[in-house]
Specification:
The complex is a heterodimer of chains A (305) and B (385). Chain A contains 14 helices and two strands, in the order αααββααααααααααα. With 305 residues, chain A is mainly alpha-helical. In chain A, strand 1 and strand 2 form a beta hairpin. In chain A, helix 5 runs parallel beside helix 9. The longest helix of chain A is centred in the first third of the chain and has 35 residues. Chain A starts with a helix and ends in a 6-residue tail after the last helix. The N terminus of chain A is likely disordered. Chain B has two domains: 228 residues, P-loop containing nucleotide triphosphate hydrolases (Rossmann fold, 3-Layer(aba) Sandwich); 130 residues, OB fold (Dihydrolipoamide Acetyltransferase, E2P). Chain B is 21% helix and 34% strand. Chain B has eight helices and 20 strands. In chain B, helix 2 packs across helix 3, helix 2 packs parallel to helix 4 and helix 3 crosses helix 4. The chains are: A mainly alpha (305), B alpha+beta (385).
């Protein structure tokens, strides 16, 4: 049963005794109307348009950027078999995958500390997690150039411990791109995990200790499984936008670090090859959708409380 | 004393001079008690009296500020909760919502690496008569069923001491009665030491062999339920356990085994045995005379037989009479100005005394008790009644 139908039923049941059936029936649909219209105009129409664009072919003898509507599905295969496209696509998933794992490794302890150990500083710490949003995304990413610059503090420390050679640097590089992505999406990882940890009843953790679980076992058997909804939400909120991101690669990487987002931007705005850009967008979407579905299946969110 | 293995400790539970301080607030104050192995022990008191804090210290969830906790010879004062042979049935059950009932009950056994966990879990589920829901999740069970699962999850570990923190608080009255009997049955069957924390005096009296009444961090009185009820030692116990009529009086004289007391309504006789050990029976000492409402007979003044020489009586007027079915509750204002409650069994419904009638209340000397005059006469009276 759809949600709308379920709501409709509830309304009917509540009003049945004294009101005619038909009256409440349209209310849920009316409530949904603004949202549906918004999605239709700003999501469905553009996506259909994008799909049609992806099947276009150049006008014979036309100028750069002149295309005609055809149904040339070969565009997809041509793009996929071109290494200038599939390598950045693959790189995107590697970078965003690593960044997601790093953000989880940093965000989970952070969320845990805020939820269980912060006492009266809890609200302050939550504000601090969100505080970076008060500064523009682009500015913050550019700031990472300074942080990772050859004269900057990070490189100085890395050089002094010998992890980075005297002539080598960190920016621009894949490391810088991944660091930037990790940093930029950290709040999206931390906040959902915090929200689900905060709902974990501390008495459950006491109960696990009472039942002979040492602190780490108690965490593994009780806290971690109960925080899974937050972990799933956080990894999705990080991985999906990170895979399509092009700002970090553009500002912190070399040309050899380009991600699929950069290729789409370049193909669309510089080459004016609209069909190929559209094809890349669709492939990216399809890949993300597949990975997310497999991931959710594996983790089994419907089983979680 | 040989250092005993804490995880296997057995024997009586001893609390020795336990104090717990939270900032400026002293939750538990120099408390000592001994709980014999295999007994059903109740810690009874109003909310905030320190009973839950005491329980949490036994469980290892709080560290005492001072004092020692022992099981037999093993000192468990600062042992980690997971090292103690103690399990708790939490107030809200604290069942793991992501595990099914079987996994919940098996949790403790698995943590200790016990091999035939399955058989023991099955037995525990049989004991609480819930084998059929082993594969369900806690939220799919009713409150009463969750309560029993919480019990099974603790009992299956055969702890030396089982702690129950207001285990029946969330259940409705009928289910609570049923579970009280069930708990008692299970305790008798498994023979573990149960320590039951509750604010419900009826619950404590129904189940426990020994009840300790706690108030403001100390134990006011400890003993079998009948002893606490019949011979309260303090005004708090007299009021908190059931209802009591208390009124101030002075010691007039002592004669033989009796003490003669005096107040504005006349003189009362009390056997010395019924005087709290906290009272000195010198003439002039201020005391509180107590008598339970159900031990008082009420008669219309004109019908009243002349009081026997060794009986106690007061005259007064009925200010209210409520018919409750099994009994009638009278409120009588004595000529001296005290208010006395009387529960009279409805043996003969035509014999009810109407409001405004002059009556004589009488009771046997051995049914009264005498408390210290320093006690607060209203201590332990339930505010909402």
């Amino acid at each position: 049963m759809s949600i709308a139908a379920a709501i409709g039923d509830t309304l009917q049941e509540e009003h049945q005794p004294n009101e005619p059936k038909r009256k409440g029936k349209w209310v849920p649909y009316l409530l949904m109307l603004p949202g549906m219209l918004w999605l239709a105009i700003f999501f469905v129409v553009p996506i259909v348009s994008l799909f049609l664009t992806s099947l276009q072919t150049p006008v014979p003898g036309g100028q750069v950027g002149e295309f005609q509507q055809t149904f040339n599905f070969a565009n997809y295969w041509d793009t996929l078999s071109d290494s200038t496209y599939y390598i950045p696509l693959f790189r995107s998933f590697v970078y965003s995958g690593i960044a997601t794992l790093l953000a989880l490794a940093i965000g989970y302890p952070l969320a845990y500390a805020i939820a269980f150990k912060s006492g009266k500083f809890r609200n302050l710490l939550l504000v601090l997690v969100i505080a970076p949003f008060f500064v523009s995304f682009i500015l913050r990413t550019i700031a990472w150039r300074q942080i990772l610059a050859d004269e900057g503090p990070v490189v100085a420390v890395l050089r002094s411990v010998g992890l980075v050679g005297e002539t080598a640097g960190v920016y621009p590089s894949a490391v810088a791109v991944i660091a930037g992505i990790t940093y930029n999406f950290l709040p999206f990882m931390t906040l959902p995990i915090y929200a689900s940890l905060e709902r974990v009843d501390p008495r459950l953790i006491e109960a696990s200790g009472d039942l002979y679980a040492k602190p780490f076992t108690g965490f593994r058997k009780v806290t971690w499984p109960l925080s899974m909804p937050g972990v799933v939400a956080g990894t999705l909120l990080t991985f999906i936008p990170a895979a399509g991101d092009y700002v970090n690669a553009a500002l912190l990487g070399r040309p050899s670090n380009t991600m699929i987002g950069n290729r789409i931007e370049y193909t669309f705005l510089s080459v004016n090859d609209y069909p190929t850009a559209a094809v890349l967008s669709f492939i990216l979407m399809a890949c993300i959708l597949t990975m997310v579905l497999v991931y959710i299946r594996r983790v089994g969110t419907e089983d979680l409380v | 004393m040989a250092k005993a293995d804490i995880t296997q400790a057995e024997g009586d539970l001893f609390l020795e001079n336990i104090t717990k301080q939270f900032g400026d607030f002293r939750a538990v104050n120099d408390l000592s008690l001994q709980v014999p192995q295999g007994s059903f022990f109740a810690l009874l008191g109003p909310s905030g009296c320190g009973k839950t804090t005491t329980l949490r210290m036994v469980a290892g969830l709080e560290d005492p500020t001072a004092g020692r906790i022992r099981i037999g010879d093993a000192d468990i004062t600062y042992a980690k909760p997971y090292n103690r042979p103690v399990n708790t049935v939490f107030q809200n059950y604290a069942l793991f919502p992501h595990m099914d009932i079987f996994e919940n009950v098996a949790f403790g056994l698995k943590r200790r690496g016990i091999k035939d966990a399955k058989q023991q879990v099955d037995e525990a589920l049989d004991l609480i008569q819930l084998s059929q829901v082993a594969k369900r999740k806690p939220l799919q069970l009713s409150g009463g069923q969750q309560q029993r699962v919480a019990l099974a999850r603790a009992i299956v570990n055969r702890p030396s001491v089982l702690l129950l923190d207001e285990p029946l608080g969330a259940l409705d009255l009928k289910l609570r009665r049923q579970m009280q009997l069930e708990l008692k049955r299970i305790q008798t069957e498994v023979g573990l030491t149960f320590i039951h924390v509750t604010h419900d005096q009826e619950e404590a009296m129904t189940m426990a062999d020994t009840v300790a009444v706690m108030n403001e961090g100390i134990i006011e009185q400890m003993g079998p339920p009948t002893e606490l009820y019949e011979s309260p030692r303090t005004a708090f116990v007299a009021n908190f356990l059931g209802q009591s009529n208390l009124f101030p009086a002075k010691v007039a004289e002592t004669s033989g085994d009796d003490v003669i007391l005096e107040d504005s309504d006349g003189r009362f006789v009390m056997p010395k045995a019924r005087v709290s050990d906290r009272v000195v029976t010198d003439p002039g000492t201020e005391v509180l005379v107590g008598v339970r409402p159900e031990k008082i007979s009420i008669a219309r003044l004109e019908d009243a037989a002349p009081p026997p020489a060794d009986g106690n009586f007061v005259d007064g007027r009925v200010t209210s009479a409520s018919f409750l079915g099994v009994s009638t509750q009278y409120e009588v204002t004595t000529h001296g100005g005290d208010t006395i409650n009387v529960f009279a069994q409805n043996l003969d419904v035509h014999n009810l005394v109407p409001q405004g009638e002059d009556v004589r209340l009488s009771w046997l000397p051995i049914h009264g008790f005498v408390l210290s005059g320093h006690d607060d006469i209203n201590a332990g009276v339930e505010k909402n009644v």
